[in-house]
Task: inverse folding
């Protein structure tokens, strides 16, 4: 099995690095799929916070994929008009067993024709923008599964998405091995009061 993780200029780092860590840990401890970082062209890609990443393969030499993950970030606002990228996502995604988006990667899935008529989520700051598309049922959760299409809220939520995805494919024990090996046990502590006072904060971010 092979999973492709798409990157592009101004992609949000943790959107793909969090899932990368979970997926490669799955490969290491429980026989998960091979992971490839895919970009439109060979050569370094500069991410949103300045990290430079060398993709494994370009669109031209990317092998067949079983799964495709599309992260978000400010770069998605440009990539939703990138016909080469959308063609890649549409063609590869339609053949995959599942496609996943993190954060505003949902807009790339939609522009590629893979999200219409689906339930999905995205970063809290773009929930209304996702609703405005008119053909997506927006669910304010950390992650959402609609058959073989998965989506998550922003940035760190991609880690939760990926663990749930691993559990769905390989079972709870495999996901548990990944969770244990990576010590992913998030604290329930909420710092400050921003999550309680910000008018756009989704329900799951508010202090219980």
Result:
């Amino acid at each position: 099995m092979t999973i492709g993780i798409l990157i592009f200029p101004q992609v949000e780092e943790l959107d793909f690095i969090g899932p990368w860590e979970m997926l490669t840990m799955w490969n290491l401890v429980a026989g998960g799929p091979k992971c490839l970082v895919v970009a439109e062209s060979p050569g370094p890609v500069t991410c949103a916070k300045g990290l430079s990443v060398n993709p494994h393969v370009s669109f031209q030499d990317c092998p067949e994929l079983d799964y495709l993950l599309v992260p978000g970030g400010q770069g998605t606002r440009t990539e939703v008009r990138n016909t080469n990228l959308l063609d890649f996502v549409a063609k590869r995604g339609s053949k995959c067993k599942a496609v996943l988006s993190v954060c505003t990667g949902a807009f790339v899935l939609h522009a590629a024709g893979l999200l219409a008529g689906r339930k999905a989520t995205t970063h809290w700051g773009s929930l209304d923008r996702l609703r405005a598309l008119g053909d997506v049922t927006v669910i304010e959760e950390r992650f959402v599964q609609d058959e073989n299409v998965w989506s998550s809220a922003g940035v760190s939520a991609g880690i939760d998405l990926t663990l749930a995805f691993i559990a769905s494919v390989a079972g709870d024990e495999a996901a548990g091995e990944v969770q244990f090996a990576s010590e992913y046990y998030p604290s329930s502590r909420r710092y400050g009061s921003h999550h309680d006072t910000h008018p756009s904060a989704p329900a799951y971010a508010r202090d219980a």
